[in-house]
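Human:
Focus on the backbone:
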Amino acid sequence: MIELKADGDVRILHMTNDENRFNATSIADLHAALDEFDAIDGPRALVTVGEGKFFSNGLDLDWLGSPAAAEAPNFMADVHRLFGRILFNQAPTAAAINGHAFAGGAMFAAAHDFRVMREDRGYFCIPEVDLDMPLTPGMTATLQSRMPAGTLHEAVVTGKRWGAVEMREKGIAEATAPEAGVLGVAVEWARAQTHHAGETLAIMKRGLYPTAHDVLLGA
């Protein structure tokens, strides 16, 4: 389940479907929530959070291997567009990483402007090397935009799992917090940034990562 809730000028995007894996239904729901958010005028910021021990475990591999996936030929393009809509949003965005962020879930978290990681449980991991699944150009572009080059190289070629302390040390997360405080830290940051929402912010984001913008959202 995907739900967008208001907290003043901040909107909190809640993902509450267990591991929050990406399939045609969940991606469509996330885009619908972003449509609702992007339609808001004035000061605003977005915070994305999961539930329990998962932020998101990425692509729903069981669904991808099922006949149903054939009925969604544009699925990966929609995933890439999701990353792009977060990375280049006109409003400030924060990921409250309440638990595991693996593979596509890690990329989704990385695309946000600000990341806060739960201290006591949960890992950030890009395990595609162990899954024998090469990253798509859109995935690579997303990660290159928001992770230090050395950290990204290590993450991709080793598939290492990093907890909160390592994420902060390696420049993946800007903050850490106990479980009960993760969402609050993200919302506090977002609330202080709502006045920056607008086309100027979007233009500057595109200027920072022009290649990713072209790959994810088109030239």
